[in-house]
Amino acid sequence: MKNKIKYKRSAIITLTSSLFILLALNIIFSFFYVRIDLTAEKRNSLAKSTIKLLKELPDKIFIKVFLEGKNNPADFQIFAQKTKEILEEFSRYSPLIEFEVIDPVAGKNQEEINSIYGEFYKKGLYPIPISREDYSTTWVVPGAFFTYRSKEYPVTLVVSDPNGKDWLDFSIQELEYNLVSAIRNITTVFAQKVAFLEGHGEFDRMATSWMEWQLKRYYTVERVTIDNKINSLRHIYLKDSAEAKIGTYGNKYDVLIVAQPTQPFSDIDKYVIDQFIMNGGKVLWLIDATNVSVDSLRNTNEFFATENYLRLNSLFFKYGVRVNANLIQDLNCQAIPLFSGMVGNQPQFKLWAFPYMPVVVNFTTHPIVRKIKSLKVDFASTIDFVGTNPEIKKTVLAITSEKTKVVPTPAIVTLNVVKTQPNLEEFNRMYEPIAVLVEGKFTSAFKGILPIEFDTIKEFDYKTESKETRQIFISDGDMIRNYYDFKNKQPYPTGYDYYAKINYDNADFILNCVNYLSEDDNLLQIRSKSFKIGILNPIAVKKKKNFYILLNTLGPLVIISIMATTLILVRKGRYNVKDRKSVRE
């Protein structure tokens, strides 16, 4: 009897203590936010840069998300829930983030719904039609409105995977990035400036329209021609009119993109770019070291490839890089269509592997290329690091496969190579760099050799050493190019292979490069996060629907019953032993 009373007293004390501890923990943790992310790729954790941005918000942001809707498909409901969860996470780090997730057409008649959707279109948020299994159509508003300081900004959150895979997986991966980009854009007073260089046969606006559109989401994008003008890339003003002294406010642009020039640079133009770099400017060089291109082979089977005379080698050498005047052949390559005959009146084409157009799949661990899987490359050259400047850090970003051949120029490039069995002994080079990053303090290419006619330029704040800055060299100008559909008046995505219907990661790679050059490391850190959403096989689920219902309903009850029975038996056995000992005593 005494043991039973003692046991009851112990049980009551244990229960009371547990309840007290649980209550105390709840009170304590109500003042602190603690979350443990056990996923391998930290999919449920915000990037450090995101947390920093949220904690430094200058003013309140209200976000109205329109992804709710009782008729929305299941995948949109999943995405709406994920959006709500990440916004809740945002608001925990910043009280200046307020949001609501709503159904914009709940309780509205058809005329009101049409009016509401019309307003969305006017404001730049475009509802999308979704076909249902019963052949009806429902409309989903794929984003939100961000309100900041009395201004409203539309933000699209549902984005399609350029590779044509599941949109839900891709949209969830891009969700944090898209939300942070929107917050950053609406709170930034002065967006960084990116300029495409013109005047040396570079790609025109049509050939880079896709990338310009992508970059305009985050930066102010312009086009600039130097044309021997000292003030084309820098803000220059008259400091003293009496003595005709000149001052400078610094660079006009943060990043300069040089996309496949085909004409030589004058000394003045080279000097202007050099001093842009010396003043902290960043440059993305997309250089074809030879004169061969896809366009050069459209009307002929052969082309005589020679060095592209751009007069840029002296600059590149000072910056620690040499883009070699050769051509890469890689057995891991794209296919091109060649005429194979006629069937009736219709010409027939067959796809052939063309080693001069590699598919690059080998990358280093740098954040710029962390999520990049493949790049479409046309007539690239090898890149070498040169010089011994200890102030420059050099990093390879992308390399060819282990079966690479380097063709020196001058050389004849022929389409007939596709029909020739490759000699594997000639493909004995491996992992040749085609994209590199150099960063640090650069020495001016004009140090000690400034021409006499440039003496007056010294008044324009001539510098021989740069600030900390960055440059990226890519040995293929076509990396940034998009093909243009003149019939529909719109560009194909950068990196899209029209013949194979494959979309490579060129656009993401270029955007990552500009993010890094502009020191937008926050955005790059978020973009480099990668994870795979585990999605059930819908066919298997449909076939075994009843099994999964029973499993999810009865499974937890069975597990709890087993645990309870085991606990009771263990306790009973333990106290029976104690009772027997008491009796013997």
Total strand segments:
29
Rg value: 32 Å
Return the structural class. Answer: alpha+beta
* Separation, N- and C-terminal Cα atoms: 14 Å
Tally of helical segments: 12
Shape: globular
- Approximate helicity band: 25-40%
**Taking all residues together, what is the mean pLDDT?**
83
Strand residue percentage: 25-35%
Spatial arrangement of strands, main beta sheet: 8-7-11-12-25-24-21-18
Q: Indicate the multimeric state.
A: single chain
Main sheet attributes: strand count, strand direction, barrel closure: 8 strands, mixed
What count of structural domains? Answer: 3
Low-confidence stretches: none
Question: Describe it for me?
Answer:
The protein is of the alpha+beta class and 585 residues long. The radius of gyration is 32 Å and the shape is globular. Helix 3 (74-93) runs parallel beside helix 5 (167-187) and helix 6 crosses helix 9 (506-517). The chain contains twelve helices and 29 strands. The chain has three domains: 48-184, 3-Layer(aba) Sandwich (Glutaredoxin), CATH 3.40.30; 193-505, no CATH class; 539-585. An eight-stranded mixed sheet has the order 8-7-11-12-25-24-21-18.
